[in-house]
Amino acid sequence: MAPAADGPEDVTVQTVGEIGEFELIARVRRLLGTNERVLIGPGDDAALVRTRETHVLVSTDVLVDQRHFRRDWSTAVEVGRKAAACNLSDINAMGGVPTALTIGLAAPAALPVTWVEEMVRGFVAECAKVGAQVVGGDVTASDALTIAVTALGDAGRPVQRSGAMPGDQVAIAGELGLAGAGFAALSRGFRSPRAAVEAHRVPTPPYAAGPQAAGLGATAMVDVSDGLLADVGHVARASRVRIDIDTERLPLPTPVITVGEALGRDPVSFVLTGGDDYALAATFSAETTLPDDWTVIGTVHDLKADEEPSVTVDGIAFDGDPGHQHYR
Fold first, then answer.
1. What ranges make up the beta strands (E) of 76-145?
2. pTM for the whole thing?
3. What share of the chain is helix, strand, coil (3-state, %, to 5)?
4. Which domain holds residue 61?
5. What's the CATH code of the domain at 252?
6. Residue 327: per-residue pLDDT
7. Which residues, including other chains, have CB under 8 Å from residue 45's CB and lie 6 or more apart?
8. How many domains does the chain have?
9. pLDDT tens per residue, range 269-286
10. Looking at the structure, do residues 180 and 299 belong to the same domain, yes or no?
11. How confident is the model at residue 322 (pLDDT cuts 50, 70, 90)?
12. I need a surface site. Which of 185, 204, 230, 283 has the fewest CB within 10 A?
């Protein structure tokens, strides 16, 4: 008598929700090759690709309705400006100057045409701040409204995340905490403080500060999209260092204090972990004299034996969520 056939193997299939955003990105990166035209590959705010005549920075972001924006909170113009700013900021964070955007739009059939036209007007308005141009894109049908943007830019002197050195000073340009406070206020049904709510709807990246930092010799740089601790953590891991943030040096905008008091939260938490402001965080040699639009908030330290790269707050490990992560 023939033996019974073996049953199906019990294979455990992991989901992207189980492994999380950063592990998913790490696994995808291991599958990607490279060639002599790719000067900086995945792992920074933008890639650097060599063309026949020059070098080009390239970055892509995706925004999904109800996750990155809400149409009952923001106008179509504000959504367009935010989608553009997220991508222009990636070029800025590399020390580059944005030149062009393409837009991929996946939209429900019932979406009003006027909403799309107003969104594009928002793109045009934000791009005008840096002299960039929308040069094309694609449209497809989808149940979920999704905006995928690719940004191109002139490289200048690219600043990566991996160059921070022990002894460097850590500084920020732009405001932190406003967008996170605005999101918290909107989530509770409030429409004020106006400055915080508007910062969530439309960020104001310090576009001039990226090339400025590159010119000042910044050793590493990142834009703060997921939260100061989370994004500075990318620099710490890429540079193999420990970065300590001095909370007494952190600027606290008045609207952030107001929201903190209203919701019973420490306003410093919005500055440390709130995202969507698209400020810049960069490291510079301790000898570098920084202009007034940069604020020193911390220091880079060497790793001790068996110590892993990390970000500490006032010298100790942060006890809490360092910022936003998809799938968590």
1. 97-107, 133-141
2. 0.84
3. 30, 25, 40
4. 17-154
5. 3.90.650.10
6. 44
7. 59, 89, 90, 91, 93, 94, 161, 221, 222, 223
8. 2
9. 999 999 899 999 999 999
10. yes
11. low
12. 204
